[in-house]
Amino acid sequence: MSATPMIQIEDLSKSYGAVQALRGLTMNVGKGEVVCLIGPSGSGKSTLLRCVNHLEAPTGGRILVDGAPVGYREQNGQRRAMNGREFAAMRAQIGMVFQHFYLWPHMTAIENIITGPITVLRRSRADAVDEAHELLAKVGLADKAGAFPEQLSGGQRQRVAIARALAMRPKVMLFDEPTSALDPELVGDVLRAMEQVAAEGMTMIVATHEMGFARKVAKKVVFMDGGRDVEAGDPEQVFTAPKSERLQRFLNQVLA
Ligand code: ADP
Ligand code: MG
Question: Which of 148, 206, 207, 225 is least buried, going by the fewest C-beta atoms within 10 A?
């Protein structure tokens, strides 16, 4: 079990001006593992995810994905900023699904999915289309290839967003409260799609308020508060035997 973790987060800190959003956070995610981030609003979950795919540049520490530093290259012990191509290649390896959907409104579901593979990965249109149909089937939307986003429910749009991220063949998938903006009856289908992705061996970090999902799917649950990983463990331990008073209080609130 000495394999390098797929995601290594080492002493990560991030400040926005005077706001310290992350205060020295260390975490490993093994290949094929699912880690769920839980914690109150403002605890730094989104910032952590945004640092992992370098939507935000960390203030301190470092992140490695599959052994490679995120956001820069190391040459002779020196950090060198990535050029545009290196940056695009890195981003393609790190899929992200947000709380609010970012589908292109003027494109059908399948066009949303194939654009990245064609333009960034240089796949042929025919291959990209074939794979997009498979991905749509996987997320339960085989019949929605030709639908525009406005013709889809929020949950369906979110599942297209998952398929679109998967089409880039990422090494890891990051989910930032993917169901928080959805009507309750639409949440289940999205969680099932995510569970399916996890079952196929994807390495995932999921910020979520869905404690049932965390309990069922996560290998590890990390409770964040104030920019720190206050407590972490397997779901059983975190949910049934929380050690810290802060986690106990949080669980009492969300499970009430
Ligand atoms: P969470 O996702 O757990 O709700 P966030 O990572 O969004 O937490 O926020 C962590 C802290 O960083 C909060 O205090 C928040 O107000 C602050 N923050 C997040 N993004 C920004 C930003 N772009 N500029 C300034 N402060 C920010
Ligand atoms: Mg957030």
Answer: 148
Arch. (CATH architecture) of 1-93+174-256:
3-Layer(aba) Sandwich (3.40)
Residue-wise pLDDT for 99-149, tens only, equals 887 899 999 999 999 999 999 999 999 999 999 999 999 999 999 999 999
Rounded to 5 degrees, what are φ and ψ at 73?
A: -110, 150
Ligand 1: centre distance to CA 16 (Å): 8
Residue showing tokens 């975490």: 27
Mutate to test the pocket of ligand 1, among 12, 14, 16 (most ligand atoms within 8 A of CB): 16
**Hey, is 174 helix, strand or coil?**
strand
Tens digits of per-residue pLDDT, 162-180? Answer: 999 999 999 999 999 999 9
Judge whether 217 and 203 are in contact, CB under 8 Å. no
Instruction: For the beta carbon of residue 209, count every other beta carbon within 10 angstroms.
Output: 14
Q: Please give the DSSP secondary-structure letter assigned to residue 220.
A: E
